[in-house]
Amino acid sequence: DFGWKVTLETAPLPDGRSKKSVRVHRCDSAHIIAFKTKETILMLREFRAFYGEYIWMLPSGKADKEMDMLEAARRELREETGFDARQLEYYCNGNLSDSVSITNHIFVAHDLFENPLEQDHDELMEVHEMTLDEALKHVLESHKVHLVSAYALLRYMKERA
Q1: How many C-beta neighbours within 10 Å does residue 146 have?
Q2: Helix axis angle, 132-141 relative to 147-159, nearest 10°?
């Protein structure tokens, strides 16, 4: 089943009626805004085989190896960038659709240090250091936009930068 489940579900509406919908379930994902310096973050330029092209995105991945989202974020950061963080904090979350039951958990990392884990054998990515503005520009100019990265960067820049 590869961790995916498709179900037909019924949910109540406030007026007493109900809504039926096909819903897709999978484990949640972790996404990290990882500050290398006070002004720069780490971004990935990853080849997405089913798109046939590279896209720009935050370090991200499925929480399929652990139950704790903080642990998943730390593992993904180490696998994808080669860095760990002395300070890794939960920031926010988002969902792409109510018909796709996957929550995207977004973290912010500071005080990075080298501590790599081996990358997955089927991933092809480059790690780049850049400002938040440069990161957002790259994400939004990708032919296929990684929506969670766009949301995370836009929200962070609006609230904190």
Answers
A1: 21
A2: 150
User: For 37-46, what is each residue's pLDDT tens digit?
Assistant: 999 999 999 9
Measured in whole angstroms, the distance separating CA 161 from the mean position of its chain's CA atoms is 20
* C-beta contacts of 19-24 below 8 A and 24+ residues apart: 21/98, 21/99, 22/99, 23/98, 23/99, 23/100, 23/101, 24/99, 24/100, 24/101, 24/102
DSSP string for 23-92:
EEE---EEEEEEESSSSEEEEEEEEETTTTEEEEE-SEEE--S-S-HHHHHHHHHHHHHSEEEEEEEEEE
d(CA 150, CA 87): 23
Other CB atoms within 10 Å distance of the CB of residue 153: 26
Tens digit of each residue's pLDDT (9 = 90 or more) over 27-81: 999 999 999 999 999 999 999 999 999 999 999 999 988 889 999 999 999 999 9
- Asked whether 60 and 28 are in contact (CB, 8 A), the reply is no
